[in-house]
Specification:
Radius of gyration: 23 Å
Oligomer: single chain
Strand content: 15-25%
Largest sheet: 8 strands, parallel, barrel
Distance between the termini: 6 Å
Number of strands: 25
Bound molecules: alpha-L-arabinofuranose
Length: 538
């Protein structure tokens, strides 16, 4: 379907079209069935969750390890341009498709003086980064980040220092970035060579302020009051700013739930989003639980939504606070926690190799499933950041003297970013289940879809969590009219722990799924064990 008349299309859909037109429950694709061995299971219809906000496909770049230095910025490298930006990385970031990037931290931001990172580079000080026991040379700062965002086509989401920083310096940064001219901080920016304002709309009010590892952490009341004061001052300057207040660092934090409630009670009228952070890893060889990580993410989101809506109800507010899931990924955190940390003040390295997790096929399948969970919650998760982007728990890796390459997780992200458009549609899969140690009984298959009325294209994202069985899935697509499969991609491997490495950079890549066919209005596809799949229909 090339040229698209939305009304005619919806009329043609009959009941489903009427549902779409009124924005209510949608049965555009209809019913699907999953078969597993002899079992055939009927799968339920599809409610439209809401518009899928592309900011959910954001990422995160922190001054941590080699994310900035030798990651995105390496002056003098044959891979870099005149400013020092690695052009091979810019290409990969564009291909990955990240509409918004969070910066400069993370834990780093709680000790960061943004003034150290602006102005003539030769005059910028080297400082100790207490979050990651590293030396920060400050050769890449706010202005370089904004320039880099323009190169990659992404929008900035700037974090503010709620550790050693102050409300005064937070608002000064907003003025530095966004006021055109004629004030102390806007003139400073202009003197640094940036005549036009940066127009930064999205801001994080600190980072993980409930964590005792965070410089400046405190009680939810203390943080909430500081966040309120800062947010008010920022909004006096520019009421159109969109602000993210810190939720818990994870759902396992001791104050989880209480933290969100109190922080939102303090700040509700002045903020737009509350943050969620979640990292998953395979623990003690329990692949079954790991593969079900999205079940945990689903529950996490629902709980934070309920807490935010509780505060809304108590206040009698007609405003809704949404979620910025601004850190999510697979991260082998337990391995990092067991690494000996650098001691002493005189030997902190610049850009050490930190958190350089190498991802397997299984990791990428879980990762793709986390994206499915985020899309499924499109009505309330309206911003998110994959943590992180380059070298540090990242889909893109570089070597200082060598190339950039794609980890396994690159593929589910880039394909989802390219294909997911329009409305998010929840697929009610009544699939077979399996037992996990961590989450009890969970569905073997997970899926979500999007439908873009403008182009008439649908995308379906699927995961088979079974470790040993292929699953055949049947979807009734008759109500979509005469559609065909435009693209199919499946990520799977006989070795679920296969990885892309510097030595073998293209070991893992998705392949077309030859099993997919549409006949008589029915789509059938076989999903190999431990696999992630994307389909484009139109
Ligand atoms: O993404 C790595 C770190 O994880 C971030 O700096 C911090 O916010 C989180 O704990």
């Amino acid at each position: 379907m090339t040229s698209f008349d939305r009304r005619a299309f919806l009329a043609g859909l009959g009941k489903a079209g009427a549902a779409l037109a009124t924005g209510s429950w949608l049965e555009a694709i209809g019913y699907a069935q999953v078969s597993r061995g002899p079992a055939r299971v009927r799968v339920q219809a599809l409610p439209a969750v809401g518009d899928f906000d592309r900011r959910v496909l954001g990422s995160f770049l922190e001054h941590l390890g080699r994310a900035i230095y030798t990651g995105v910025y390496q002056p003098g490298s044959p891979h870099s341009d005149a400013t020092g930006f690695r052009t091979d990385v810019v290409r990969e970031v564009k291909e990955l498709g990240v509409p918004i990037v969070r910066y400069p931290g993370g834990n780093f931001v709680s000790g960061y003086n943004w003034l150290d990172g602006v102005g003539p580079k030769a005059q910028r000080p080297a400082v100790l980064d207490r979050a990651w026991n590293s030396m920060e040379p400050n050769q890449f700062g706010t202005n370089e980040f904004i320039e880099w965002c323009r190169l990659t086509g992404s929008e900035p989401l700037l974090g503010l220092n709620f550790g050693t920083g102050s409300a005064e310096m937070a608002v000064a940064l907003v003025e530095y970035c966004n006021v055109e001219r004629g004030t102390k901080w806007s003139e400073l920016r202009r003197s640094h060579g940036y005549a036009a304002p940066h127009a930064v709309k999205y801001w994080c009010l600190g980072n993980e302020m409930d964590g005792d590892w965070q410089i400046g952490h405190g009680t939810p009341h203390e943080y909430g009051q500081l966040a309120l004061k800062t947010a008010r001052a920022m909004r006096q300057l520019d009421p159109s700013l969109e602000l993210v207040v810190c939720g818990s660092s994870s759902a396992s934090m001791p104050l989880f739930g209480t933290w969100e409630r109190i922080v939102l009670e303090e700040t509700y009228d002045e903020v737009d989003y509350i943050s969620c952070h979640a990292y998953y890893e395979e623990k003690d060889g329990d692949l079954g639980s790991f593969l079900a990580s999205a079940v945990d993410m689903d529950g996490f989101i629902d709980t934070v939504v309920a807490t935010a809506d509780h505060v809304k109800a108590v206040r009698g507010s007609d405003k809704t606070v949404n979620i910025s899931f601004d850190e999510w990924n697979v991260w082998y955190l337990s391995r990092w926690e067991n690494v000996e940390k650098i001691e002493g003040l005189d030997n902190w390295p610049v850009a050490p190799r930190l958190l350089e997790d190498v991802y397997s096929v299984a990791d990428a399948v879980v990762f793709g499933n986390l994206l499915i969970s985020l899309i499924r919650h499109a009505d309330r998760v309206t911003s998110a950041s994959l943590a992180q982007l380059v070298n540090v728990i990242a889909p893109i890796m570089t070597e200082p003297g060598g190339p950039a390459w794609r980890q396994t997780t690159f593929f589910p992200f880039s394909i989802t970013s390219r294909l997911a458009q329009g409305d998010a549609l929840e697929l009610k899969l009544d699939a077979p289940t399996y037992e996990t140690a961590q989450y009890g009984e969970v569905p073997l298959v997970d899926a979500v879809a999007t439908f873009d009325a403008e182009s008439g294209r649908s995308a379906v994202f699927l995961v088979n969590r079974s470790q040993d069985e292929a699953v055949t899935l049947t979807v009734d697509v008759a109500s979509l009219g005469d559609v065909s499969v435009l693209e199919s991609h499946t990520l799977a491997d006989d070795d679920v722990y296969a990885k892309n490495t510097l030595e073998d950079r293209e070991r893992v890549a998705p392949r077309a799924n030859d099993s997919v066919r549409i006949e008589g209005g029915e789509l059938t596809i076989t999903l190999p064990p431990v696999s992630w799949t994307a389909l484009s229909l139109g």
